[in-house]
Specification:
- The chain has 17 helices and 2 strands.
- The N terminus is likely disordered.
- It has a domain of 181 residues.
- By secondary structure, the protein is mainly α.
- The longest helix has 27 residues.
- It is globular and about 60 Å long.
């Protein structure tokens, strides 16, 4: 059997293979550099390529995947009561920031507040690793406009559970903030900064938690915690649980539960999701009338976010909480 020989590809006169290789390396380096910049600066995105716009961008989502893997470090860092308390406290505070402000305030404008309180809760919401306040509000407004149609990026009825739960969140099309949806919010430069550099606040929170753990290990060793433990439980575990709890409203709350109101979408009321997400699980209520600060329309429908907003109103921090109009309940089937 004759051995095959390598094919020699002629190079035109004057061509320099070393230069060609350098160009390839430069192109690869430039592509990698752009991808890394997108982790830090969302404005670094290139023009949208329609051929790949709805496919998961694995390189850009690598930090998000790494956060899930980091939760496994609990087997190395151990656990302590103080680490669990911090993780739970951060879940509660950040869930309220998402439901009360990212959702009911930024997305639906169901009450008013001062610019200072607006920024404080935008900052807390930004620490959740669910992107910035403008992005969150723009996508949610789009969801209500096209709920459970092909133009709704996270409809489980159209695209399936996994995609509606997390897949859509990882695509180039849905990384972008449609500022045309949020002109009322885009006028605030501090909100635009949080939106553009949406990894800045989470990284700062992670660093602060690690340093807190280091400090506690030295000044209060009886607590049995450490920098690594506080980082893993306080940031990674708390944040990942928070994320998946939040997005159950996209996936599970459009598949499981009861329908009090006839809506054009598949939204459902689910008491378990309502408890987990501080009232967001009364999703059919919300889709029928999204203009209320309250989502648990009946007195027995537990809505922790509503209670928190009532308290803030009593303290003068927010005002003009929009109630559920009387006519809404006349449309209910129960």
């Amino acid at each position: 059997m004759a051995l095959s020989r390598p094919v020699l590809i002629p190079i035109s006169h004057g061509a320099k293979p070393a230069t060609l290789n350098a160009e390839v390396v430069d192109a690869h380096g430039s592509w990698l550099s752009r991808s890394v910049r997108r982790w830090i600066d969302t404005a670094a995105s290139d023009e949208l390529d329609e051929a790949t716009a709805d496919r998961i961008d694995w390189l850009r989502t690598a930090p998000f995947i790494a956060m899930h893997l980091a939760c496994l470090c609990v087997f190395w860092v151990g656990v302590s009561p103080i680490a669990l308390i911090v993780a739970a406290a951060l879940y509660v505070v950040r869930m309220f920031a998402l439901t009360g402000f990212y959702h009911r305030y930024f997305s639906h404008r169901t009450f008013q507040t001062s610019r200072t309180v607006q920024f404080v809760f935008a900052l807390i919401g930004a620490s959740c690793v669910q992107r910035g306040p403008l992005w969150w509000a723009a996508h949610h407004r789009n969801h209500h406009r096209h709920a459970d149609t092909t133009r709704d990026p996270h409809s489980p009825g159209v695209y399936g559970f996994i995609w509606s739960h997390v897949g859509w969140f990882l695509t180039p099309r849905n990384f972008r903030t449609d500022l045309s949806r949020v002109p009322d919010l885009a006028k605030f430069p501090e909100l635009r900064v949080l939106d553009r550099y949406d990894t800045l606040v989470p990284v700062m929170l992670a660093v602060c938690l690690y340093l807190l753990g280091v400090l506690l290990k030295h000044v209060a060793p009886q607590l049995g915690t450490s920098g690594g433990q506080m980082l893993v439980w306080g940031f990674f575990v708390s944040t990942i649980v928070l994320f998946h709890a939040t997005v159950t409203i996209n996936s599970l709350a459009h598949r499981f539960g009861s329908r009090r109101f006839n809506t054009r979408d598949d939204s459902r009321n689910n008491v378990w999701l309502a408890l987990l997400t501080f009232g967001e699980g009364w999703h059919n209520n919300h889709h029928f009338f999204p203009g209320s600060s309250r989502q648990g329309f009946r007195w027995w429908e537990i809505d922790l976010t509503w209670y928190g907003l009532r308290l803030m109103s009593a303290l003068g921090l927010v005002r003009g909480l929009k109630p559920v109009p009387a006519w809404v309940m006349t449309k209910a089937r129960e």
